[in-house]
Every structure is written in structure tokens, then in C-alpha cells.
Amino acid sequence: MSRWDDPTGEFDDGWGGSSSSHGTGGGAGTGTNAGGPRPGEAPSGAAPSSPVPPSALPPGAVPPYPPADTPQPAPVPPTAPPADRLGSSGAQGAANVPGVYHRVAPDGTPELWPGPIPLRPMSFGEMFEIAFGVLRFNPRTIFGLSFLTLGAFALVGLAIAVPLIILASTAQPDVLGAGDNGASNSFNAGSSLAGSILGGIIVAVVADTALGRRLSFGEAWARVKGRILPLIGFIVLEGLLFLALVVPFAALWIALAVTENWWAFGVSLAVGIPVLIVLYTWLGVMFTFAPSAIVLEHTGPVAAFRRSRTLIRGAWWRTFGIIALTGILTSVVVATLMLPLGLGIGLLSAGGAVAGGGTMTATTILALVLLAAATVLTGSLVQPFSSAMVALLYLDRRFRTEALAVDLLAEAERDAGRLAPPR
Predict the structure, then answer these.
(1) Which residues are CB-neighbours of 186 under 8 A, at least 6 positions away?
(2) Which keywords describe this protein according to UniProt (predicted)?
(3) Domain residue ranges in the chain
(4) N or C of the chain: less Cβ packing under 10 Å?
(5) Helix segments in 28-83, DSSP class H
């Protein structure tokens, strides 16, 4: 962990890093003035400059410091990085130069890190602040990827849903309702799949953010394009696993309903539904880091399940708490954004239902298109925050259990060496 000897930061070099930490990749300052005197000053705790006149010294002795009236050389100003290495993050410092992001640790210790993510275990409250910092660090790529991913799956969902509505419009009203339900279900499934894949894509961007790198669209896509199929495989396996949990309970409920054993049916519902919720929640948290492992560690879907379980072990409740709070916050934001849009779409659908016939079909399709657009826009704003929180949780667990920070700091130092200006 980086530490400064002067917590007031008065020896800041003026471009986002201390004069003793250029190119250190977040480590403690090792420059010529690191924790020591400024040019022309005696070390801390030393006697005043030449307290004894030279004539009073023993023969051959040299004063420890030059007399006070001796001219001192002007301090050499720190070398600023080239203009093309400076970022657009204001006081935060350079975009691609490790060791120029100021932070204050929970214990009040000032720090320098390669990027906006501290390479150490993070507290619960820190993660929310850092997640917003990650989004501000590379907004074009993160929000752009979110919009493109969600938009692509929304178009696929509409391509399936609209023909179903058109076909159902020529049938009986109950068939039309089934067509509408099928269209909505297909669209919702596509949105869920898009959100899961997007989480895996964003974790690649967040991982490079920890090193102070800003991935472009092309670079981010190059990182994840080979992992899309494993991500889809993981999503399918997860869905089958959850389905396998539901099937025995569903079979029992159907059998009790057929035999009209309503007392047993009610008891099984009262017991089975909470059990399913607990199992679903437990497994969902246990597999939280599987997409991250697939993208960053290049594991397969099955190995990703095991890897996530290993990382979660001993931290289930903490992971659950952070994910649950994140979900509550994002749900409130989505509901706030969607409420006026939902009211407008509902009025449009109601007007079409009153008109009936072809008008009803047209308004139903228009309402679905508007719903898709609203879902994409709100998801593009909210989903990146949720995905960034999961990525930070993943990094935090690896910082705590595998000393990943050491490897990342070494990588940051290599980056600093490649980007350092020629001497």
C-alpha cells in the first residue's frame, strides 16, 4: 500500500502524483526526496545548518551542512509526463500512467494507485464510490457496449415477438392473448440473456481499469469475443440447474392438485416456495463470479461454476449483502425511470384495445417497440453499475485470497517502464 510521509500532500508534484512516486505503480515512494528533505533542507530531526562556525571545528573536520549564508542550488522541478500521456480525469491524473490516482484509505492513509480501483481489499462503502469512478473513467466504452449489447438483443427479441403478434391477431381473442404473452416472454428472455452477457463483457473493461488502461470498443471486443459462447453455455447450464430444482416441486404440486388433496397441497406450497427461494438465492450468489472467471481466466462453463464457488467460500453473506443492496438501488432507479414511460405505453395499449381490429394489433406492436426502446435506454444506464459492482467484488475476493494485487502492481510497473519518457 502506498504511503506518504506528509499526509497533507504538500510535496505533490503538480500533475497528479507525488514527487517520489513516478512510475512506482502504487508502491511507496522511492525517489530522491521520498520521505526525506527537500533540496536545500537538512533531514528531519537534524541539527540546524552549521550550528558551529567552521573556525571552531577540529582541524580537518568538515561542517555537516553548508553555512546558512551559502547559496543553495534551485530545486529541480519534477519532469511532467508528455502531453499524450495525460488523461482527462482532472486532478485524478494521467490516464495511462500508473501511480497517479490519489485515494485515502479507510484508515486515513493517503494512497497512489495505477487507476481508480485501489489494489487492495475494499470496504463495503468504498465499492459504491469506486463503481461510479470506474464508470467515469471510461464512460464511452462501458455505456457504449451496454447500449449496443442490449440493443442487439432487443432487436432479436422484437424480430421474434412481432410475427407472433401478427399471427395471433388473426386468431381468437384467447389466442391473441397467448401470442402477446409469448412475445413478452421472448423479449424478457432476450433481455435477461443480454444482461448476463453484458456483465461478462464489462468485467474485462473493469479489470483493465484497475491498471489505469482505457479500453476502446475494438480492444474490449477483442478481449471478449472468444468468450461469448462459453458465457452463453454458462447461462444455459445455470438455467437447467434452476429448472432441475423446480421440477420435483412442480411435479408434487401437480400430483396433489390432480388428487384434490388440497390440505397437503397448501402445506407443500407453504414449505416448498420458501425452500426454492433459499436454494435459488444461495446458488445465485455462489455462481456470481462465474462470468468473470470465464472472461478473465478463460475457464469453461463447468470450471467457472467451481471457480466461483471457491472464491465465494467464506464470504457468502458479504457478497449477498452487496449484491442485494445493489439490486435494490438499481431497481429503484429503473422503476423511477420506467414509471412515466410505462404509463404512456399502458394508455397506448388501452386505446388500441378499445379500437379493436387492426388498430389493436398496430398499437400492440408499437407499445412493444416503445417498451423495448425504454428497456434498452434504462438498462444502458443502470446495468453497467451492477456489472461494475460484481467485477469489483471479484477483484476484492482475489485481492483477499490470492494476492492478485501483487501481480497487478507488477504489471503496472511494466506499463510505467514502457510508457516512461526517454531520458
Answers:
(1) 157, 160, 161, 164
(2) Membrane, Transmembrane, Transmembrane helix
(3) 1-22+84-113, 127-406
(4) C
(5) none
Alpha-carbon distance of 79 to 32, in angstroms, equals 13
Backbone torsions φ then ψ of 110, nearest 5 degrees: -70, 145
**pLDDT at res. 298:** 92
Q: How far is CA 108 from CA 22, 92, 223, 342, in A?
A: 22, 18, 36, 46
- Under 8 Å between Cβ of 398 and 206: no
What is the mean pLDDT of the segment spanning 149-167?
Answer: 81
CA atoms of 394 and 304, how far apart (whole Å): 13
Indicate if the pLDDT at residue 341 is higher than 70: yes
**What whole-number distance in Å separates Cα of residue 173 and Cα of residue 176?**
5
DSSP 276: H
Contact 165, 194 (CB under 8 A): no
CA torsion sign for 51, 56, 61, 62 is positive
Residue 187 binned pLDDT confidence (cut-offs 50, 70, 90): low
Give me the sign of the Cα torsion angle 307, 311, 313, 318: negative
